[in-house]
Write a structure and sequence with these properties.
By secondary structure, the protein is an alpha+beta fold. Helix content is 67%, strand content 6%.
Length: 246
């Protein structure tokens, strides 16, 4: 599966459904009525947009970190949550347990997407602990919210602790991008020729047979080593590679 292409597709879906949501909201404002049908449409499109952005974060995590298990779990949670919300709205499900389950899955999906976004940057070694602490804080906050929903907790102390963890999550969400920026600037100052992973195109090839390779998208390449001697008249010369149509 080409997760880069999946990420781009999810981004397009997010934008389109966000536009549809905005159009619906504009119509509601101009007409002056916010009926039940329009409300369901807006919530449905927003749900799809939210699921798309969560899944896009998961796809980016898989693409960069090569950890399909957690990433696919996040995509699945986002998709299932969107389906449950839309189904519950249009079928008008009134079961409390149904909505508790839906909210819990949605919180889990959002938490995974949030964690993956913060784990994407390549921070300096001395700053990577901030990503780990942020991931732990997000997980803790998600567990607290899910616990409050399922157990219907109504204790002031519990929500104070939840708010405290939320502050830590917000702090980590702000700090990680700042450290990422500082890390990039520091590397450029120390080495003007430095390029981050995002700035270098990486080609991953798998050998098929002989000097023929394929990339994750299924394209086929004929590759020769750059330090090898020149091949015969009919071959590829040193330092060259050919893409072979499939």
């Amino acid at each position: 599966m080409d997760f880069k292409e999946l990420k781009e597709t999810l981004l397009k879906v997010f934008i389109w459904f966000l536009v549809v949501t905005a159009i619906g909201a504009i119509i509601a404002v101009l007409v002056g009525e916010f009926g039940d049908f329009l409300g369901k449409v807006l919530v449905s499109t927003l749900s799809i947009s939210a699921a798309s952005i969560c899944a896009m974060s998961c796809a980016a995590f898989i693409e960069k970190r090569q950890r399909q298990g957690w990433g696919l779990a996040g995509i699945a949670l986002a998709a299932v949550t969107a389906v449950l919300i839309i189904t519950g709205l249009w079928v008008e499900v009134g079961d409390t347990d149904y909505w508790k389950t839906t909210i819990s899955l949605g919180v889990a999906a959002a938490a995974l997407a949030h964690i993956f976004l913060l784990l994407l940057p390549d921070l300096d070694a001395q700053h990577r602990w901030t990503q780990q602490v942020s991931a732990i804080a997000i997980t803790t906050l998600a567990v607290q919210i899910i616990g409050a929903v399922l157990a219907e907790i109504d204790e002031d102390v519990y929500y104070r602790l939840l708010a405290a963890v939320g502050i830590v999550v917000g702090l980590g969400t702000l700090i990680v991008p700042i450290l990422m920026k500082l890390s990039k600037e520091g590397k450029r100052v120390a080495d003007p020729w430095h390029y981050s992973r995002e700035e270098v195109e990486t080609l991953i090839l798998e050998r098929v047979e002989g000097d023929r390779f394929t990339d994750p998208a299924g394209r086929t390449y004929k590759v020769t080593r750059t330090d090898a001697e020149e091949s015969g008249d009919g071959g590829t010369r040193e330092g060259e590679s050919e893409e072979v149509a499939t």
